Amino acid sequence: MMFRALGMVYEERSGLYYDYKSGYYYDAKIGMWYDGSSGKYFHYDPDSGVHKEMGNIKPEEKKKTETKREKRRRKRDKIEKKRLKRMVDTDDNEGTEGAEDGECSSSTSSPSDTSEDEQGPPPADKIPCVRLMVYESEDSKIGSLFLVTLPGGSIGREGAEHDVLLPDPGCSKFHAKITYDEKKGQYFLKDMGSRNGTWLNNKRMSVSKSESEPHEILHRSKIQIGKTILFAHIHPHLETCGGCEPGLLLKSDETEKFSSAAEKEAGRKKKMNELKKKYGLKGSDMETNESNVSGGAYVDRAEERRKKVGSDNPYEKTEVASLEKSLDSRNKGFNMMSKMGWKEGEGLGKDSAGRSEPVPIEERKVRAGLGSDAQVPTLDMKAQAKKSEVWKKTQERYNKLS
């Protein structure tokens, strides 16, 4: 967050922070600035505000700052040196054989021969690399950089062996291949028989599921795979331009997108329609039934029941039990006792010898059981007890004073 606030962007492939104001990369591990074009390290002097060039870095620090790009460059240099050495050995052998046969050989060469030798394969530090920038995509981050160097690379959707990984559904697992022609000094793109095809400068390279011929990749060539559009930038060695620097294209402050409830519901319906279309349920009986349940008229089952069966009067008074009036046949208890053999007017019990009258309501003293003769306190008794308590307290106060 601190580097982002200073206007710096983190580049995942190199592991460095890019400052698009100065054009340098910052290595947080050793606290130094790195110039990608010259390959030199600098130290920032806050007093003078100038980046000062550093001398040789310790071997340990060099190991830490060594990136994948530098490893590829060293490997490319070794391959180029071996190739040049083989060419020199071949020329020496041909010259020796010619001298042995007695042919005349001049030590000087014509200007045309010299120019042809000079126009041979470029030196290792001038071999170009392909920088693929994501210009438009629904699955990849716009402004992302993919680097393809000597001897080439591959494009695919899955697998750690690919140099360019595109999560686009229109990209096959092994979609295309980029190769480098050492004689011509050019990069070529070849479709490896993908299903959805590859477009180079708005032209399809081959039909579906068939390999294409190698096509030359020029500077600012447009490559389209599925819904992802890439632009190729070809520069010698570590040189770049404003159109292939991630720090200039990536947004420094990315705001998170918050969706409202309506947007989430619209997205859910969209995904549901896509799933129905995918599995052939669009327009089927299942979808028709769902639409009737969700979007059809509401069926009031209670209203239908009231019309057919009827309902109780909501304004009717609730019947209250009384000691003066016996229960009639509408009472549930009466019906239950009748089913067990009891008849109206008989007593309770096995022999119908029990009481037939309801238990009278009696007011008892607190915690007193049935049959207790304890007197129930009345309001008059409570008032009398309160007066007696007041008289007693008054008498106690009088006795203390006397």
From TrEMBL:
What sequence ranges are listed for the domain G-patch? 329-375
In this protein, which residues make up the domain named FHA? Answer: 153-205
Q: Which InterPro entries match?
A: AGGF1, FHA_dom, G_patch_dom, OCRE, SMAD_FHA_dom_sf
Among Gene3D superfamilies, the record links this protein to: 2.60.200.20
Q: Where are the transmembrane segments?
A: none
**GO MF entries:** nucleic acid binding
Q: Where is the composition biased (Acidic residues)?
A: 90-103
| Protein name in UniProt | Angiogenic factor with G patch and FHA domains 1like [Bombus impatiens]
SMART domains, per the entry = FHA (SM00240), G_patch (SM00443)
One Pfam family hit: FHA
